[in-house]
């Protein structure tokens, strides 16, 4: 009965099937085949990525929990832990944007409270095709509404994020969601099943036929028939999750719980197997006891369903009534569906008779691990070449290369750079009354009530850089995320990553993946931000076209004093503006300037000196702690020109006047001016300080080995920047801010008109 | 004084209101579970923001049937101060404790941002500490805050001076561009005829600490704390002349609340 077509539908390769038969010593039945197919899917087994992920730095004195659990955890003092993780929901969000994104948020929240932490902040990192296309606008509206619909209802603020529009993501948008929670460091709870005879409980929503084979879907490329996969997308119920969250946290206050895990990808299958495997135990359940939304569900369907808002608990024997009482208060199903056993088997029964019996080990530790072939992509040799002299003619989009004010306005109006207020206004970013750096102000920062401290968090990635050089691009992503956290005044402590790539069975994609992981490892080691967990999303391809390789990095940092938080905006007129870090050499490779103004994605990404980066970050943290800076903003997309403009925005009209050094990257003087303004050299930050603090700030910079110089002054209602002594940009702040703040709205206003 | 903060399943600003009452204003605060039937001796009742029962049917439509609601209604009928914030406001409308209804926001999108509201009336327990015409900057966060009432009801509401907060620009001028959700008459907050039950869409508990970016929400909490204190003073004077203390405290409270007019 198991034929090649059936295997193909389950995403299993013939040799993988042979391994299954060898382990089992017999042919699996259909239920068992289904269980293997989801547990051995790329999504659950990390079979292509595992050999590379092992090389990441995951340890440090601050790490309380590294990869392998539902989420990572770091020590933040006061006996508390920050528990956080990022996860992708790319494939479901493309097929059904609202529910795909909503259930992504639901899933990552469950991962956090499963650890015994109360979730207090969400971030998201989104990538879409060009906003010019109706398809992108539909996806963006759906995804944003989905994130809002879930996060707002459950009452966890979305305090920041990033969003990029690039044609590369048109067929495969990326929806990466991050959640952070706070737990007592001593009370972190794990997803483990142990203690023979302890009760296995099913809690939460009923099981339906939704989401069957979601994990398998996320492990294949898209083609024109992908819309037919809609039934594999689950439907979220944030109210149910809110009840689950409160009830689970209440149960965790007792010591009746042995372990707990959410039923995410691969549902009941993954939770029973992983919990058993971690505890070195077996788990036996009877699917006929599982609350079901539909009648006539088979064991296969029940085991593979990805219905949302469900948890699996292992409860100490004799404490069942106590746990049931709490779930009863919250009007949730808590059903005793099985027991922990000693034999290491996943045993599934239906009304008493065994319908599947598989060693846990075969599903987890013995899942295939591939050392897939790798080869540098052939496109690299071409795209590395960047001829700046040819820029004037090459694909210029009808703009005057010498009109730098117009260039700045074009960049400010680029949806990737423009204000994201249209988006974050739809997210409740203030609930829980902890948000002290709003979305759009730099890293998201939340204070920790009951302490003096606050946590800063940032998500960053740059697919264009990684396309041009995945190693350097990934390092730059880590550096930028950590720098954003440091700009807020927080010392970076730990990181999580979400690795979005194409089909790993193609050697060029696998090479991109491996190089990116190496880059992440190098940067995390140098900046001392260990990776505590994360997620891999492969097969982001449609009709054979892969997305830019896009590692998204989340960095979490700690502010000792919440009231010393720093935002990007200038605060007072007459403050001095300083550039911290080497002034930059006008590096334009892979820049937003080339992309937006010339339609060119070429060159090599900016160089990164990790020691200089670390020194800069440490200086930023020190200056904030000493209250020496009034604002701090990192220079990234669009270079200093854009960074300065952003420092002036949302200030109620505080302009700036500054002068930059000339750079020499081309014969054309106008290209040199543009490079000085919009080059994206790394490891730089713009800070503003009170005029009388300048000596102390410069001394501290010198002591930290960080180049620093005064480049201008805040004030007035214009933005004036000269390069090499000549005025290059002179624009009213009002006009510039209007372009920046209305750019995204206008794409939607246009459509209505 | 003691704040009673009602927790419905799906409430999500209950802890924020609790934090404001206890940690910022130093008052007693108690959570009251929606299945309870008494208010645990609360002197003021807050129905907090959130999505009670998921709000899948219509905002507040399920919460009005929660077992605690008869106690809330009885408390209001005795003149006790009740504040509904956001979802709490929606619940007060659905319960009939306040007139009118909520529609989805104009633009059909959830909006979370700071807005300006002008204090229209100060003779309620939640605006007594503000000045008439004072403009407060307080955040909103809602998808259904588009207040609606039919013309005759609206006329009655206006004639009775029941509109206590309106959306304006930062200078206190009515301007449709600054009305974030399309509410009729830019109504952001409302009281009942007796003036002791108040509903408001903006979240004052989100604007009580400078660290959070603004303190204009303090006026709402300071009002009710101040009203209570003066009620207590009256009660203490009454005790000094020999009246039974407990009876006179509650009597003085309702007297002062309704006497604010």
What report would you give on this structure?
Chain A has 753 residues and is α+β, with helices and mostly antiparallel strands. Chain A is built from 26 helices and 28 strands. In chain A, helix 10 (238-253) packs antiparallel against helix 13, helix 19 packs parallel to helix 20 (507-527) and helix 19 (470-487) packs parallel to helix 22 (610-625). With 261 residues, chain B is α/β, with parallel strands linked by helices. Chain B contains six helices and eleven strands. Chain B has helices at residues 14-24, 69-77, 87-95, 151-159, 218-240, 245-259; strands at 2-7, 28-33, 44-47, 82-85, 101-103, 111-119, 135-142, 146-148, 163-168, 187-191, 197-200. In chain B, the strands form two sheets. A nine-stranded mixed beta sheet of chain B has the order 2-1-3-4-11-10-9-6-7, sandwiched between helices. In chain B, strands 5-8 form a two-stranded antiparallel ribbon. In chain B, strand 3, helix 2 (69-77) and strand 4 (82-85) form a beta-alpha-beta unit. Chain B is globular, with a radius of gyration of 17 Å. Chain B starts with a strand and ends with a helix. Mean pLDDT of chain B is 92; it is low at 243-261. Classes of the chains: A alpha+beta (753), B alpha/beta (261). Chains A and B meet through helix 8 and helix 10 of A and helix 1 and strand 6 of B.
